[in-house]
Amino acid sequence: MSQSATLLVIDDEPQIRKFLRISLASQGYKVLEAATGAEGLAQAALGKPDLVVLDLGLPDMDGQQVLRELREWSAVPVMVLSVRASEVQKVDALDGGANDYVTKPFGIQEFLARVRALLRQVPQAGGSEVAACFGPLTVDFAFRRVTLDGVEVALTRKEYALLALLAGHPGRVITQQQLLKDIWGPTHAEDTHYLRIVVGHLRQKLGDDPTAPRFIITEAGVGYRLVAPTA
Amino acid sequence: MSDSTRADALLANLPRNGRGRLKVFLGAAPGVGKTFAMLQAAHAQQRQGVKVLAGVVETHGRAETEVLLAGLQQQPLLRSQYRGVTLEEMDLDGLLRAAPALALVDELAHTNAPGSRHAKRWQDVQELLAAGIDVFTTVNVQHLESLNDKVRDITGVQVRETLPDWVLQEAFELVLIDLPPRELLERLREGKVYVPEQARAAIDAFFSQTNLTALRELAMQTAAAQVDADLAHGYRQRGQEAPALRGRLLVGIDGDDQAERLVRHASRVAQRRHLPWSLVHVDNGRLRDETARHRLQAAQQLAERLGGEVVLLRAGEVARTLIQHAAERRASLVLVGQSRDRLRRRLFGTGVAARLLRESHGLEINVLDRDVQPPAPRSAVRRVWVWRHYLLALLATVMAAGLAWAVSSVLALPNISLVFLAAVLLVAVRSSLGPALACAALSFLVYDFLFIPPNFSFSIQREEDVLTLVFFLLMAALTGNLAARQRRQLQALRETQAQTSQLLDLSRRLTVATDRQAIFKAAGQHLGGWQDTQVCLLERNAEGQLQVASGEAHTFSDTERAAADWAWQHVQAAGHGSDTLPEGRWWWWPLAVDEQPLALLGVRPRTGRPLSDPRRRLLTALGQPLAQALARARLAEQLEAARLHGETEQLRSALLASVSHDLRTPLTAMRGSIDSLLALGDAIPAEDRRELLEGTRNEAERLDRYIQNLLDMTRLGHGGLKLARDWVAPADIVGSALNRLRVVLAPLRVHTDVPAELPLLFVHAALIEQALVNVLENAARFSPANGRLELQVAVHDDQLRLTVSDQGPGIPVADREKIFDMFYTAARGDRGGQGTGLGLAICQGMIGAHGGQILVGEGIDGQGTSITLCLPLPPQPEADSETP
């Protein structure tokens, strides 16, 4: 968790770039800025940032296209800035290689939390972690055990698979399709109801109030996210 | 002198909508020099710089006239072939295209060749005038309609080419070209007057000294009448008393041969005495044969052409009805003809004229003498002798005789006559008066022969038998007459009833029809069932072309189409049987209200025979309600469009007002807070500073929600709301909504009641969440500080219900329905009471799009409001079958 990571902010709005710069700089990050997609790609090549914050509504190129081109030669984590009520856009971005998104207008706390979550993943793509802690919840990947406040929780195979997937990318959103494909198989990519039912059971077992969940957050129309660890 | 009369007179002098002015050169006979005078006047105009074009000028080979004509520009005549003969007519379209300031048209009363647009040249001139072109023209006095019979009386020649009087009366100027008869005769002898060889003999009779003098007087009288009218007009303009229009002239006509003569006379008298006049015909059921009806029709048309009104009454008593009508219309003068039966009139004084004289009060009665006329040379419609009826008479008599003979042994002699009487009655009822009388006569003879002693001979022995016979004949004739008359009246009534029921039927259908399409359909259905004619309705489509609105699709020839266009443009009947373009098979009748054509009624007789007058009358009568219905439909359409427009405008302005207020409110708070921080930052304590900043953020979130509402609303309105449904857990929606409103709900005590096991919804999550957010925000806004807010989710039958209850001021029962109406909520905006602003209207849209509904009720413990979103539950999907 290097606090001197370099972040690239690609957004055509100067006000947004300004407040992001100020906020991120206050956390010790180094911030590069770009106002257009072309400039952003150039900066990404030159500055070699650890994270790219990409606005989808750019003047010269479509944000998705920037993402596509970036992904051709870089695996740098990308956080996408999108507007509400365009779930399709978010899902496309995530499918197109983005790692997470925030919806405009967003709270800075949430943004920073997600940035942190993304930066943590950089060394490995996940899977080498032995266990993850999320407050009272601990997920032990090696032993395939989940404990809540020290008490083991009995989960079904699918429930565990879901939790493990989410825990493997804490704080990041995993799309519904991704979850369905990984857990049920590629032919079940549209069977969202499976997901809902399993999540419902999981939440129950974890003692999570569905209207105010502590651990598993539903991102409507996009996917799920496991709350970032407080540590 | 009233202001309005004077105003009318003044107005009449203004150039009428760019209509051209007509100057008429009037002469008593051919050869007085009308054409010459016209050409001279034209040259004078040309010298003043007016563009003059000669449409048609007849020089008749006169050298002086030809010289004058050569100096003017001429429009070439239109040549056409008709039955192997080349005819030349005035080129009307050419003149219209050339659009000169002044056109010269000779011989106004001329009849155009077949194939021309109009039947008469004066109608062509009307078109020229309508197009704004001034016209000089020439007319001989014998061509005037109202003088036609006078001229015939004077010269013995019936002139066929006539001109309606009103054409002359409308003329701007009338110039009398006068030549003393002696001089005219001299000219004739010198060969200066055109005389076609074939008509030599007739013309010689025409051009006698006495004739010419009389014609000259007629011409002068006509010109004088015009001057008189102009003078009165001038007085009216100056505001002085015009000859007062007192009273009215009524002319009563029958179907006899005096009808037209009476009408002409009436028009002359009315003109002289400046009275409006009406033609009155009282139908007492007597008029049944074709000739009489034709005469009546012709008289009516003549009256209309001469500017009189036509009134048709149905009553039993002619004289009394006339008197009544005269009283109603405040007539001062009644003109009638002499009764036919001179003898009866003298003896019994029962003629109409006599009755009028006796029974009227304060009326001036004029009785016109009978005129022995040569038989009218119209295509005689001979009375069809229905041989069948006379055969029936014979048969009836024979049968009666047989019956009587058979019964004669039982019945006494006088009573046997009753059998014959019965036969006469039967024949009278079955046929008409003629056969009935024949039967009576025949029965009389048979009765005499068979039953009056001595039997089997025609002689009469006893005196009392003579009386019997005479009275028998009398009775027979009387009953026959009565029965026949009854039958006629019944027939007349039947026709009236048929016509009325047709009208009623059509009217009924039209009342039900709501729009133009329905009206056309109803009309088409009604009129399509007629056997003898084919009817269709035309209307103008968006491109301005006439197309068939009902009836089968017909193909029209060019002439027929031209006639239809003309009828539409000029709002007059055209086509077959009319004065304009009569070549086609279709007759066009424009249906118009206030001179605005709405549709065209086209009629084509199926058989070869022309359209009968009763049929034409019926159609024009039916046209009235049809035109009214179409006008009504058009008004309704306009009203609806205006209403929609009004509604849209209303909504738009309400929304604009709402938006500008509701956007400004959070911005004001934000701006205020930030300004304060900037300006007074240090003076404000830390926690207050924090509060201001937090307030700014909250207001920003509120602004965001509001903008989201606006966006959703525009999508709702434009149908851009596409539902991307997916399986959603209700708890997720609730959680997400509560999360978004965390700050707003913070000061309240929020209780949620969400069961653990809830069925899944198949909805567009973001929209339902937005709806819930709006409801929650609304409840929160009006809740008292630290008030209770309850959110409950429950399954009710096949619905999922999300209920939000608060302890706010509540919504009055009367308004509970209205709060979802965008007008109501938008108009009152956020500053209204609970349940205003766009939020709830959008809820309605979102929930409604999912097939759900919203219920409004009382809130917590009977106070406040509760709003329930009801969503239909889909059949639950199957859980995966694999091991969990």
UniProtKB/TrEMBL annotation, chain A:
GO terms for cellular component: cytosol; protein-DNA complex. InterPro entries: CheY-like_superfamily, OmpR/PhoB-type_DNA-bd, Sig_transdc_resp-reg_receiver, WalR-like, WH-like_DNA-bd_sf. The keyword Ribosomal protein does not apply. It is found in: Cytoplasm. GO terms for biological process: positive regulation of DNA-templated transcription. It comes from the Bacteria. The keyword Cytoplasm applies. Keywords: Cytoplasm, DNA-binding, Phosphoprotein, Transcription, Transcription regulation, Two-component regulatory system. Pfam families: Response_reg, Trans_reg_C. One of its GO terms (molecular function) is cis-regulatory region sequence-specific DNA binding. Its main location: cytoplasm. PANTHER family: KDP OPERON TRANSCRIPTIONAL REGULATORY PROTEIN KDPE, REGULATOR OF RPOS. This is DNA-binding response regulator. It comes from Pseudomonas putida (Arthrobacter siderocapsulatus).
Automatic annotation (TrEMBL), chain B:
It catalyses: ATP + protein L-histidine = ADP + protein N-phospho-L-histidine. It holds the Pfam family DUF4118. Its EC number is 2.7.13.3. It is a multi-pass membrane protein. One of its GO terms (molecular function) is ATP binding. InterPro entries: GAF-like_dom_sf, HATPase_C_sf, HATPase_dom, His_kinase_dom, HisK_dim/P_dom, HisK_dim/P_sf, Histidine_kinase_KdpD, KdpD_sf. This is histidine kinase. It comes from Pseudomonas putida.
